[in-house]
Amino acid sequence: MPRNIAVPVIASLILFAAAPLRAETPLQSSALVSSSVEAALPLADKIIVRKAERKLFLMSNGAALRTFKIALGLRPEGHKQFEGDFRTPEGSYRLTRRNPNSEYFLSIQVDYPNEQDVKRARKQGLRPGGAIMIHGQPNTPKKSRDYYANVDWTEGCIAVSNSDMVEIWLMTPPDTPIEILP
């Protein structure tokens, strides 16, 4: 199965694997299946990332719905200052654009840089960088599976396993706030 498989197909597979058998026609529409998966999963109203713990929490009304192990930028300590510093930003942002066809298994963009980030970088005569995402593993891995699971390896993004990325994708509505803590 290709690694960049369309999300509705993934959602259908999750539902099929998890759902009890029912007496329905075998040719259900993918819209029905996708809406059933979305209805079965609670939606997060916030994401909290704790960099020091290497954890991402999907939150709803102050309670954690799910917790995921994460990998960060190659230099994880401290707030992202400029393009190419290999740091993951810290602060309050929002989830914006979704890309089911990225270089990584699914990706959701974090709206870094904000106005403060741009000002800080420009004061130093630098560009703030961008394209900070929550994403799965590379579609074309260059390292072992163990490496991606146990090392901070991104250029500043927040990486999770592919199966975790499916849950994050399905459980976060557009414009979900994300708080990235040291």
From TrEMBL:
Active-site residues from the entry: H135 (proton donor/acceptor), C157 (nucleophile)
InterPro entries associated with the record: LD_TPept_cat_dom, Transpep_catalytic_dom
Swiss-Prot/TrEMBL keywords: Cell shape, Cell wall biogenesis/degradation, Peptidoglycan synthesis, Signal, Transferase
SUPFAM superfamilies: L,D-transpeptidase catalytic domain-like (SSF141523)
Molecular function via GO: carboxypeptidase activity; transferase activity
Functional pathway: Cell wall biogenesis; peptidoglycan biosynthesis
Keyword Membrane among record annotations: no
Signal sequence, start to end: 1-23
Tree of life domain: Bacteria
L,D-TPase catalytic domain residues: 45-181
Biological process (GO), any one: regulation of cell shape
Family named by the database record: Belongs to the YkuD family.
PANTHER family according to UniProt: L,D-TRANSPEPTIDASE YAFK-RELATED, LD-TRANSPEPTIDASE
Official protein name in the record: L,D-TPase catalytic domain-containing protein
Species assigned in the record: Steroidobacter agaridevorans
